[in-house]
Amino acid sequence: MQKKILFIGFVFITTSSLQLKAENPKSDSTFRRFFIGSSLFMFGNFSTVNNPEYIQINFGYRITPKDVLSLDFKRSIYSWPIGIPFGPSFDKPGLNYPGHAQIQAPTIGYQRFWWKGVFTSIHALNAFETYYNENNTKIGNGYTLYLNFHLGYQIKFFKNRFFFEPALGMSYWPIRTNVPEAFKLVEREWPNYFFQPGLNFGFNF
């Protein structure tokens, strides 16, 4: 499913025939300070295998044409250690948790545009996690601080009404508390970081 999502994002970029500016000069009449958005990872919810039940809502404010603050909310479930990289081990049977975890993560973000549509961003996800065993019985609560870093490019279209932001990203979690011991045993083999793409989109107003 992850490969399908990446393919959709690639097609979205390559089939766009509109020529778009990616900075917001103050003299530009199309400049819009606010936006709402989400991620193409939401398409993962159509999967019948390992459905992440993923929800992402982004709300942002452009302080200047180059500086953006955002408040986001993310929710998902996962049954494998998040540190498993894309490859033969990803989603491989036998590496999963003895149950699953549910994340609800209010998020604060800052994005900086450097040249044309090129940007970097950092997001701090305050993930409040609920752990369940294989019988779907709650066994505990935990907290993880995820720091997400992205390098990407913003594509604008329809007179800056909509945008798409393909990016390269890395997630790193320096704080992780109250993980059940059975889950820790599975996680020990894997690092506390993960490389993944960013596929955000949004509507400016």
- Strand order in the sheet with the most strands: 1-2-3-4-5-6-8-9
Strand content: over 45%
- Rounded mean pLDDT is 87
H/E topology pattern: HEEEEEEEEHE
Cα Rg: 18 Å
What coarse outline follows from CA principal-axis ratios?
A: elongated
CATH fold name, please? Porin
In total, how many beta strands?
Answer: 9
Helix vs. strand class: mainly beta
Corresponding CATH architecture:
Beta Barrel
Helix content bin: under 10%
Low-confidence stretches: 1-25
Classified by CATH, the class is Mainly Beta
Largest sheet: 8 strands, antiparallel, barrel
**N/C terminus separation:** 32 Å
Number of helices: 2
Number of domains: 1
Could you please describe the fold and organization of this structure?
The chain has 2 helices and 9 strands, in the order H-E-E-E-E-E-E-E-E-H-E. The N terminus is likely disordered. The chain has a single domain, classed as Porin, CATH 2.40.160. The chain is elongated. The protein has an 8-stranded antiparallel β-barrel with strand order 1-2-3-4-5-6-8-9. The chain has 205 residues and is mainly beta. A hairpin with a 4-residue loop joins strand 2 and strand 3.
Features of this protein?
mainly beta; 205 residues; eight-stranded antiparallel beta barrel
What does the secondary structure layout of this molecule look like, with pairings?
Blueprint: H1 2-14, E1 34-39, E2 55-62, E3 67-78, E4 99-115, E5 118-133, E6 138-153, E7 155-157, E8 162-177, H2 181-187, E9 193-204
